[in-house]
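#structure-requests
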Amino acid sequence: MAVGRPGSTPLGNTLSSLKHRNFRLLFCGTSLSHIGDFVQAMAQSWLVWQMTKSPFLLGVVGFAQALPRLLLGAVGGAIVDRIERRPLLLCTQFFAMAQAFVFWAVVQFGVVEFWHVLGLVLFLGMVNSINQTARHSLINNIVPREDLMNAIALNSSLANLAKIIGPSLGGVLIGVIGIAGCLLVNAISFVAIIVTLVVMEIPAGKAKLDDDTPFWHEVAEGYRFLRGDRRLLSVIVVTYGIALVGTPYARFLPVFATDVLHAGPTTFGLLLAAPGVGAVLAGLGIASLGRLRRRMHFVACAVLAFSLSLIAFSFSRSIYLSMLFLLFVGASNIAFRAVANSIVQMETPPQYLGRMLSLFFMDKGLWSFGTLFIGSIAHLIGTPRAITISGAFCAIAAMALLYQQRQARGAEPSESLDQRVA
């Protein structure tokens, strides 16, 4: 199903996109920033859990951070299609760094309250709704098409390697320098990505949009384009479904660490890191593929693997088995998202790329509703049973996508199929 480049080595295939200087700089610059992000995420979850002891309020915090992605996603995509990527990314990184310093200050000086956390995560969610779309569209600009899936997979591996290092480091740092110290580490980490954005050599230019077109018409045009492309629509709909009922599981890992596995922050860090291990391995595997045929079928199978792994995790009462199942959860999740991302980037015309990526990444906005939904169910029947229900819904979504693809393959001419799987 995969074909490597002639004369290339497996390692050369895996790292092929790093031969491009601008992507190499972006890759290195985001590495430290990603680690800092996950250190803050762990410290934030642990802070809320220690303050409230409520799985529902953990869900509320997830709601607050993800909601702006849902409400502002399409708007952010239109902004990305209008403005040069580098100045836009510099602005978002400065705002995110300011948020981290304020968060550190309220915790450091002992004035933090729950509403402070809600306000800060809402602000960061608004910044990230634009930042993520701009960063991924920049990858499309600085990496040739033949290396694009490799760059997307490596970028995903980097983010998930940070999930291994960040939570593990955070679990240690909470005991050494406290929650405030973890927040300060994240604030300082933004320096790396800001410096690399400054030194990158990116040709100046603006997306090819009619400047006279009203902004809101451009937003609506993105929705019309998506509605007219059945293949992209199927990819985005399934990502929305998994985001709504599947991926919110990560918000409730503090509950598994303390109430189910009867452990502390170190185990919590290991549980957060385990999906990152699987994701890194899966991302590197996808990066090694020269070409992946039947990408939609691959996406459906990866979603099914994700659902079964999540159900198995919900039944585990062993730390080691829980980590193993979470490893499979992370591997299948990144396999699904990396290939879905490549479908969106490869099959979207350049003038719509920002808007299609923003619609794709709006799935993280649905975490806001998913965390509230799963948190409410967990409050009634317990967190493990709520996660079991989540996995069952994901399995239904995977089987529906497999059925839809089987119907589509039976209806399309063979020539069209050959073009879409290439």
